[in-house]
Design brief:
Pfam families: ABC_tran. The protein has two domains: about 220 residues, P-loop containing nucleotide triphosphate hydrolases (Rossmann fold); about 60 residues, Alpha-Beta Plaits (2-Layer Sandwich). Helix content is about 35%, strand content about 30%. It contains eleven helices and 14 strands.
């Protein structure tokens, strides 16, 4: 049995379906990326899982127990940071952790948790939260999400406001906790960072799950693409199309897929007496794969 099971969950606002038969699972120790455009249903799904809102039909269970708007027994072992952390301006970081640990039987060690999330420095010691930067507040919010030693952590845009070093450190922290058995469900628009982190992907669009797979399987279907610039991209486009390869000109660059090899592409362009100025091979790009999938779904393909 998976740690988290979401089965055929729907949520409607009037005639609009914010969640439409949403189903997916999260295994213990797995990092799952919940991905989709703004308004796709990511935050609604996360709020339903954490018991923050009701849903119209379907079931959500965590660690074998049901989760509903009125049944929160299972939530003691779920940590979450959804949208923005609930931070009190006149409390320090340590005072926040003590506050959020009050109803927890076995909270995390404060000192160790503050060190892991990098909120143990002088900037956090005596300063009140009203003086924290956005990145400092975000790291505190992540620490609060971990205060219960949760089995599952749900993070919505956890990298928001963090500098590159802090993003790297957060990624390492999440990976280390997952290796110890903690599961994560993460939504982020920083797809390059998410790609480095997640084990599984769940893609949602217009409230429906349109793809769910492991990251490795997701990219195994991704075709190799070549981005080419020549001295005449319009002429090169015609050459490529004559070989029945898929091609288009995006942002002034010739994009090619479908050829058996790069050498085939180079030979075809050279034989047409065109000069190749730049050439790049692109594969396994989460952002491009996501955009292609969303475009196909919007077209009903």
């Amino acid at each position: 049995m998976a740690l988290l099971e979401v089965k055929n969950v729907s949520k409607k606002y009037g005639a609009r379906a914010a969640m439409d038969q949403v189903s997916f699972e999260v295994e213990a120790g797995h990092i799952v990326g919940l991905i989709g455009p703004n308004g796709a249903g990511k935050s609604t799904t996360m709020r339903a899982i954490t018991g923050l809102m009701s849903y119209s039909s379907g079931t959500i269970s965590f660690d074998g127990q049901p989760v509903t708007f009125s049944n929160h027994q299972a939530l003691d072992k779920i940590g979450n940071l959804i949208e923005y952390p609930s931070i009190y301006p006149n409390l320090t970081a340590l005072e926040h952790l003590k506050l959020y640990a009050m109803d927890t039987k076995s909270p995390a060690d404060f000192k160790m948790l503050m060190h892991k999330t990098q909120i143990d420095g002088d900037n956090f010691g005596k300063r009140k939260a009203k003086n924290f930067s956005l990145g400092m507040k975000q790291r505190l919010g992540i620490a609060i999400a971990l205060i219960r030693n949760p089995k599952l952590v749900i993070l919505d845009e956890p990298m928001n406001g963090l500098d590159p070093q802090s993003v790297h450190d957060l990624r390492e922290l999440i990976r280390s906790l997952a290796d110890e058995g903690t599961a994560f469900l993460i939504s982020s628009h920083l797809l390059d960072e998410l790609q480095k982190l997640v084990d599984d992907v769940v893609i949602i669009n217009h409230g429906k799950i349109i793809e769910k797979d492991t990251m490795s399987n997701f990219f195994s279907h991704d075709k190799v693409r070549w981005t080419v610039d020549t001295n005449d991209n319009e002429a090169a486009l015609l050459v490529v199309q004559e070989h029945n390869w898929q091609a288009s000109i995006d942002d002034g660059h010739l994009q090619i897929t479908g050829a058996e090899s790069l050498q085939e592409v180079i030979s075809a362009i050279n034989q047409a007496n065109l000069k190749i100025l730049t050439l790049n091979t692109i594969t396994g790009n989460l952002e491009k794969s996501l955009l292609d999938m969303l475009a196909a779904d919007d077209k009903g393909e």
